[in-house]
Structure to design on (589 residues):
């Protein structure tokens, strides 16, 4: 419909002004800041061109954080999507309690990550934690004392927890997609003697393709900026082996117990984060470009 | 129920055999889904129960029920650890933020989805792009900006940040919702002589209320659980929202060893959102797919 220009502007203005001033402007100024050497929130900034990026390239801790983030993105994504798919197949196979399963598996998504890291932190505590007590009870003493949050295993311990949280979200997404597929497709396939797996592969997956694409984009955007879990999983200091890019960036910018305030350099890390998002979304769009199926 | 009734009235042996086999086929599904769900319910339930135990009981008898309910754990978390103060900070920060988010996003989304004007697609695209910008990129520029305005370390500053950063996602949800509404009522109202603003206020807004409620729930849960931005913008303990308070409690637990007090804190943080989810899970689950599943 058409309404007066004045009203259009009036309706758009408050949201646009806030979005522009406190979201878009900082985004673009971040690109600028990343070219400066800027320590402490004072005014002494000096232009250093791409020096921050050159330094990043040789920064081992940055690469370790980046490879952790990429590992979460790719391996975590593979596990999460795989599990969500299997569960989608199971929930839609005509079992009872469909809505209950869906709701419970989704539940971790509504809980504060800080509460969940506390829960998982306790779960992994050797001997006294839930896992330790469980192994203790079944007589596996060695496993009961195993330091899951030690440097060798902390990343994997974290990945398990992240998978546990995220599977429910993608399950819900896929299930909604499945609900849109007309039931007669399955009826017809069943009459032709198709197996459950064949129906899944030949009907569900192709018709769910759009939803999968959206899911992958959402996961990528979310995965590269994971911060809370590694940051608060262990005690006061996050373990270097579970650093993600966002954690490393925070530590460079704001420090832990000791402030570091390398603001220009930290912002360059942030820009790398944006580049990863852009790259992944571009790759996904390329990979996912398929013929649109109309039904 | 219906299926049972049907099969009782038409006893076909072939069919019963088939459904028997089906039931066996379903065993792996029940095992996986049931096991997963059980784990989730058990761990969260265990924490909730442990929050009413004594520290001694938690470590000595992790699988037993508490002998005496230790409500004193909650008193410690609420008063000594000041989570009570943090709780009310969160209520205020999140409440005001959600209200303002909807107040600014609903009119914008209405215009973007229902009104034809030049530049509409471009503006919508710019809004949606915000969803892809990773927050950490904004930490330092936003902090410098707010510091310049003297608004760091204040609830108002955090609210401003929350509102601004929540706009893209909210506009995305609401435009999706507004565009599904039928045009007839809008046109009828115009014919009846309603002004543009009246159409929005008295016709479209009430029609969109389910979508607005969904956006409100998502923003409430997201901001109630928010941690990163609060960590950056709030340093003073009295200004802290609940998530920061719990993080501080978690850190001090490293020294005090008071696990049950920490568990009480965990319950205080997660109870409101879990309750909301129990009441509104259907709406939330259908809301997740708003826009992304056509």
């Amino acid at each position: 419909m058409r309404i007066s220009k004045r009203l259009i502007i009036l309706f758009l203005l408050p949201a646009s002004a806030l979005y522009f001033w406190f979201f878009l402007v900082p985004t673009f100024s971040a690109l600028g800041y990343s070219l400066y050497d800027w320590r402490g929130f004072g005014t002494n900034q000096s232009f250093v061109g791409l020096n921050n990026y050159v330094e990043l390239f040789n920064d081992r801790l940055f690469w370790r954080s980046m490879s952790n983030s990429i590992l979460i993105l790719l391996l975590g994504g593979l596990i999460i999507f795989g599990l969500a798919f299997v569960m989608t197949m199971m929930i839609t196979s005509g079992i009872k309690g469909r809505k209950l399963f869906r709701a419970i598996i989704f539940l971790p998504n509504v809980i504060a990550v800080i509460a969940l890291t506390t829960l998982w932190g306790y779960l992994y505590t050797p001997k006294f934690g839930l896992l330790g007590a469980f192994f203790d009870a079944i007589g596996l003493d060695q496993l009961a004392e195993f330091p899951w949050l030690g440097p060798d295993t902390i990343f994997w311990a974290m990945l398990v927890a992240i998978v546990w949280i995220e599977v429910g979200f993608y399950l819900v997404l896929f299930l909604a997609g499945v609900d849109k597929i007309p039931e007669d497709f399955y009826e017809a396939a069943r009459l032709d003697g198709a197996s459950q797996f064949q129906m899944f592969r030949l009907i569900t997956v192709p018709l769910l393709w759009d939803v999968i694409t959206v899911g992958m984009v959402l996961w990528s955007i979310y995965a590269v900026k994971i911060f809370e879990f590694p940051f608060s999983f262990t005690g006061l200091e996050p373990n270097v082996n579970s650093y993600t890019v966002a954690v490393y960036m925070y530590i460079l910018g704001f420090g832990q117990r000791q402030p570091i305030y390398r603001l220009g350099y930290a912002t360059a890390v942030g820009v790398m984060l944006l580049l990863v998002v852009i790259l992944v979304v571009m790759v996904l769009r390329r990979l996912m470009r398929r013929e649109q199926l109309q039904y | 129920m219906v299926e049972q009734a049907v099969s009782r009235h038409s006893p076909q042996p072939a069919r019963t055999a088939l459904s028997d086999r089906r039931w066996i086929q379903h065993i792996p599904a029940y095992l996986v889904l049931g096991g997963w769900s059980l784990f989730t319910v058990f761990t969260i339930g265990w924490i909730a129960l442990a929050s009413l135990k004594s520290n001694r009981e938690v470590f000595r008898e992790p699988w037993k029920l508490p002998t005496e309910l230790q409500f004193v754990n909650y008193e410690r978390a609420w008063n000594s650890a000041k989570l009570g103060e943090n709780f009310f900070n969160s209520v205020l920060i999140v409440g005001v933020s959600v209200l303002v988010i909807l107040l600014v996003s609903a009119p914008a989304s209405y215009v973007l989805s229902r009104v034809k004007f030049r530049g509409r697609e471009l503006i919508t695209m710019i809004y949606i792009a915000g969803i892809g910008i990773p927050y950490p990129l904004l930490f330092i520029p936003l902090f410098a900006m707010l510091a310049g305005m003297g608004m760091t370390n204040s609830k108002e500053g955090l609210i401003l940040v929350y509102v601004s950063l929540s706009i893209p996602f909210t506009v995305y949800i609401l435009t999706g919702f507004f565009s599904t509404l039928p045009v007839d009522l809008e046109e009828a109202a115009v014919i009846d002589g309603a002004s543009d603003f009246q159409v929005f206020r008295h016709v479209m807004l009430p029609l969109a209320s389910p979508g607005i409620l969904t956006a409100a729930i998502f923003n409430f849960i997201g901001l109630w659980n928010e941690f990163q931005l609060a960590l950056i913008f709030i340093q003073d303990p009295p200004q802290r929202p609940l998530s920061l308070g719990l993080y501080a409690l978690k850190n001090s637990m490293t020294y005090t060893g008071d696990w049950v007090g920490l568990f009480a804190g965990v319950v205080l943080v997660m109870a409101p959102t879990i309750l909301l989810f129990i009441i509104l899970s259907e709406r939330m689950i259908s809301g997740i797919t708003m826009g992304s599943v056509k």
Notes: Chain A has a mean pLDDT of 88. Residues 88 and 154 of chain A are 29 Å apart (CA to CA). Chain A has one domain: 45-288.
